[in-house]
Amino acid sequence: MVSKTHVPGSHDFTVTDTELLLESPILGVRRDTVLMPGGATAKREVVEHFGAVAVVAFDGDNIAMVKQYRRSVGDHLWELPAGLLDIADEDELTGAQRELVEEAGLEAQTWSVLTDLITSPGFCDEAVRVFLAQDLKKVERPEVSGDEEADMINQWIPLKDAVGMVFSGELVNSIAIAGVMAADAVVAGRAQARPVNAPFAYRPTALAQRRKANGIVPDMKKL
């Protein structure tokens, strides 16, 4: 039972034990034993993630979007160019620049941070940094084969139409929704983007640290 003198928001949820349940190429699952405010402990499963980056590439009117198959929902979804931070010690901007070339065949001269989001904090530590990329130029996109990217559709969509897709239900990917709405606010002058060196406080570390400690570098997916 929680003490009547307990001040909500003041408890230290100390982890007293942890157990690794699953290790797979792009995620891990652990079970933490956590001290609760009443003095008892509880089990909490946590899906560990590398973290990710996404890019709103804006040419002044349109943004670069992709439509990609996602097995978890069994459908093709409209998304932003995006990818995992799965290269050991790679900073977020470098990862975003790499993904923009690989998924959209674009480079950008001007970069800023639109938003950071934790995609599902109830059970997963995944956090994503969404960048705004401007002053674009086309470059050769690397050839892909075999994975979902080989079936990916690339399309320029007017930013105003992408906003409309959020409200019509056509755009349901949470990272893309956050990026589109943030970009619309910044472009319209209702908000200001942050510099690329702004702290990414919630970037996940547990999975990456374990992979690096086990010598799984530079590509931390290579179990």
Question: What can you see in these coordinates?
Answer:
With 223 residues, the chain is of the alpha+beta class. It has a domain at 52-187: Nucleoside Triphosphate Pyrophosphohydrolase (Alpha-Beta Complex). It has four helices and ten strands; from the N terminus they run βββββββαβββααα. The strands form three sheets. The chain has a four-stranded mixed β-sheet. The chain has a three-stranded antiparallel β-sheet with strand order 1-2-3, with no helix packed on it. Strand 2 (27-35) and strand 3 form a beta hairpin. Helix 2 (159-168) packs across helix 3 (174-187). One of its GO terms (cellular component) is cytosol. This is NTP pyrophosphohydrolase. InterPro entries: NUDIX_hydrolase-like_dom_sf, NUDIX_hydrolase_dom. One of its GO terms (biological process) is ribose phosphate metabolic process. Residues 48-179 form the Nudix hydrolase domain.
